[in-house]
């Protein structure tokens, strides 16, 4: 395997499948099966998952009713729900996991402790990080970047529903051009959408590469880890 320790970032919306909201069980099973294939190869895997399928905190359009800070905390709780669902799906197929939360919820998960997270990874357990950074005004992309830096991950894999980074939205512009590789400077210069700026800058400053790929295509995750040309690599 090209990478030994990775941070996989999944969007909450990805768990919806074809639903308008909530969790699609078939999509959840598929993700769990793909994750198991890489864990069985000895890869140390940590996961951050968003909560947009349940409630989106940052950028929510209900600020005339729900305070921004309150909304962000609600979004963090949504990520814990998704994390618990993914944890259950993984453990049903024999993958040992630990769920750590940036907000204390002793009955259902461990508090986030860096040394404990690394120890779990060293023992071959999948570590799922819930509740974002535990702070309002930060996205789960930022949480993924921060946790990747803390656990010294080799790379961040951002699983999306498109097969990489394009010069325009490929779901709108059919003539959009895909990049196989792109530098951090080029992303800044061209205004490409990879992560929010805070998350992206954290990766740039700490020299962590990002691979954006289509997580919905079975087998893509293992191909990325084998170093095959899947998705788009953001490098230095």
In short:
This protein has seven helices and eleven strands. With 236 residues, it is of the alpha/beta class.
Q: Care to describe what's here?
A:
By secondary structure, this protein is an alpha/beta fold. The protein has a single domain, classed as Carbamate kinase, CATH 3.40.1160. The protein has seven helices and eleven strands. The strands form two sheets. A nine-stranded mixed beta sheet has the order 4-3-5-2-1-6-10-11-9, with helices on both faces. The protein has a two-stranded antiparallel ribbon with strand order 7-8. Helix 4 packs parallel to helix 6 (197-205). The longest helix is centred in the middle third of the chain and has 25 residues, at 68-92. It is globular, with a radius of gyration of 17 Å. The model has no long low-confidence stretch (mean pLDDT 93).
Provide key terms for this protein.
236 residues, alpha/beta, Carbamate kinase, nine-stranded mixed beta sheet, two-stranded antiparallel sheet, globular
Provide the fold topology.
Blueprint: E1 5-10, H1 25-39, E2 44-49, H2 68-92, E3 97-101, E4 110-111, H3 114-122, E5 126-130, H4 140-150, E6 155-160, E7 165-166, E8 178-179, E9 181-183, H5 184-190, H6 197-205, E10 209-214, H7 220-225, E11 232-235
Parallel strand pairs: 1-2, 1-6, 2-5, 3-4, 3-5, 6-10, 9-11
Antiparallel strand pairs: 7-8, 10-11
Helix pairs in contact: 1-2, 4-6
């Amino acid at each position: 395997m090209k990478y030994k320790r990775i941070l996989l970032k999944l969007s909450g919306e990805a768990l919806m499948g074809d639903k308008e909201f909530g969790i699609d069980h078939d999509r959840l099973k598929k993700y769990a099966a793909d994750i198991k294939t890489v864990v069985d190869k000895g890869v140390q895997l940590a996961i951050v998952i968003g909560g947009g399928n349940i409630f989106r905190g940052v950028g929510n359009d209900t600020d005339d009713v729900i305070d921004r800070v309150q909304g962000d905390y609600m979004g963090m709780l949504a990520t814990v729900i998704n994390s618990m669902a993914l944890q259950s799906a993984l453990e049903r197929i024999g993958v040992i996991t630990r769920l750590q939360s940036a907000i204390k919820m002793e009955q259902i998960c461990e508090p986030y402790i860096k040394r404990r997270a690394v120890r779990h990874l060293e023992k071959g357990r999948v570590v799922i990080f819930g509740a974002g950074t535990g702070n309002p005004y930060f996205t789960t992309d930022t949480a993924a970047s921060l946790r990747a830096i803390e656990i010294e991950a080799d790379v961040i894999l951002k699983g999306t529903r498109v097969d990489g980074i394009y010069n325009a939205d490929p779901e709108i512009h059919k003539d959009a051009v895909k990049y196989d590789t792109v530098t951090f400077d080029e992303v800044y210069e061209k205004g490409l959408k990879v992560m929010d700026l805070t998350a992206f800058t954290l990766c740039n400053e700490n020299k962590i590469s990002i691979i954006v790929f289509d997580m919905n295509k079975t087998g893509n995750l293992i191909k990325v880890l084998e170093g095959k040309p899947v998705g788009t690599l953001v490098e230095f």
